[in-house]
Backbone:
């Protein structure tokens, strides 16, 4: 059967049987309805652009494709990327081209899980989308910027579908109960429904599959099912987390930004979420070592030592106890004063080095290890800092072309306030000497 034939025949899982046939029936994606509705009108069906539908599992991507299939006056072909090869795409493109030039109408090609096409297969799509032989609609749970060729992506409009809200999930729950001929108000208790909605994690397909499983398991329950009964039947949910894709990148980004923003509540939350998803604790610890220098820096010099100790502890003890070590580092870094002055300094210095190359080092700072270097005056005017009464001697250390540049500017936060005072004292001493 075709991707949509099972639902149309009234067979198959509840999730397929309840797929919408009109765009207004799709729950939780009203912003997409406003975009697609004009293309579903007969007067505009010959101008379908290329779309990529991007969103989490169970948010309505395939349902949108089915609505388009049933309402667009064009030849609609549905494929799954896992089962599709370059040869099939070429044959489909040739057929769509022949249909177009013979005046039989346009073709719309829907490719589910389009991110699973390899780069070569994606390249095969290009000439057909470029020539308008068919309009492409791809569905993906992965960030198109990472998974699709830039050339293909530039020819498509990306439509972002949102994770379904609890309100939308409750609406779908009621529809599912009605299809199963059970009373939604008595099938689950109020607390049971709350647990059930949390368990499905924004996924309508998961909700309907679980609802059907519950119905098959208990039939018409003698009393509403509560959280304990649901936990026994459904077991613990699997957290949606991919250690190399969107969930990985988005969660670690939120984690780092929370710690940088001095929010220990959010920092601990995202730490727990990554660990529950199976993220490598060593990876997390290494990112915290970087953050300790990049975002805390000399405002609290102890931060780097603590972060390194945390990394060593994670490698030593492993999970699950490593979570305790990580929690200590996270909360410390969240509550530490922040400065990115060292980070800004090295970035500016690297830019200057790239621009200016190997400027001559002052003779006084060069190594005088050989007789020739001594004859050339290397090191002659060098002043040993510790011979000064304060452990400091006034000298120029930068190449003369960079004499006035300042890379490092400590803040007035934490220990950097002391460092700033020391630098200001040296500047004042130099000015008084002049």
Residues:
């Amino acid at each position: 059967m075709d991707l949509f034939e099972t639902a149309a025949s009234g067979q198959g899982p509840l999730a397929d049987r309840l797929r919408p046939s009109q765009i207004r029936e799709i729950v939780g994606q009203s912003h997409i309805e406003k975009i697609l509705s004009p293309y579903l009108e007969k007067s505009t069906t010959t101008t379908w652009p290329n779309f990529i539908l991007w969103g989490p599992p169970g948010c309505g991507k395939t349902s949108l494709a089915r609505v388009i299939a049933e309402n667009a006056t064009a030849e609609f072909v549905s494929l799954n990327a896992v089962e599709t090869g370059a040869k099939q795409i070429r044959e489909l493109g040739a057929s769509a081209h022949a249909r177009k030039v013979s005046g039989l109408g346009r073709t719309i090609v829907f490719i589910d899980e389009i991110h699973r096409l390899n780069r070569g297969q994606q390249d095969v799509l290009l000439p057909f989308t470029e020539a308008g032989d068919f309009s492409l609609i791809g569905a993906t749970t992965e960030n198109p910027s990472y998974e699709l060729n830039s050339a293909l992506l530039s020819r498509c409009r990306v439509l972002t579908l949102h994770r379904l809200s609890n309100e939308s999930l409750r609406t779908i729950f009621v529809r599912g109960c009605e299809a199963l001929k059970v009373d939604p108000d008595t099938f689950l208790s109020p607390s049971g429904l709350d647990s059930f909605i949390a368990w499905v994690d924004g996924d309508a397909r998961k909700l309907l599959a679980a609802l059907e499983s519950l119905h098959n398991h208990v039939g018409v329950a003698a009393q509403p099912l509560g959280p304990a009964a649901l936990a026994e039947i459904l077991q613990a949910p699997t957290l949606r987390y991919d250690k190399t894709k969107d969930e990985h990148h988005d969660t670690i980004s939120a984690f780092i930004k929370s710690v940088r923003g001095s929010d220990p509540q959010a920092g601990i939350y995202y730490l727990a979420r990554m660990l529950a998803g199976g993220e490598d604790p060593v990876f997390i610890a290494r990112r915290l070592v970087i953050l300790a220098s990049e975002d805390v820096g000399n405002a609290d010099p102890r931060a780097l030592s603590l972060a390194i100790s945390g990394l060593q502890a994670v490698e030593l003890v492993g999970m699950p106890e490593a979570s305790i070590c990580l929690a200590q580092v996270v909360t410390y870094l969240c509550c530490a004063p922040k400065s990115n002055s060292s980070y800004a300094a090295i970035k500016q210095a690297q830019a200057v080095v790239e621009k200016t190359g190997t400027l001559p080092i002052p003779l006084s700072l060069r190594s005088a290890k050989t007789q020739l270097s001594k004859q050339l005056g290397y090191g002659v005017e060098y002043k040993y800092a510790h011979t000064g009464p304060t452990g400091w001697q006034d000298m120029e250390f930068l190449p003369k072309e960079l004499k006035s540049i300042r890379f490092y500017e400590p803040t007035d936060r934490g220990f950097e306030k002391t460092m700033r005072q020391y630098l200001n004292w040296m500047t004042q001493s130099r000015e008084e000497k002049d």
Summary: The radius of gyration is 32 Å. The beta strands are 51-54, 75-80, 107-112, 135-140, 157-160. Residues 289 and 305 are 9 Å apart (CA to CA).
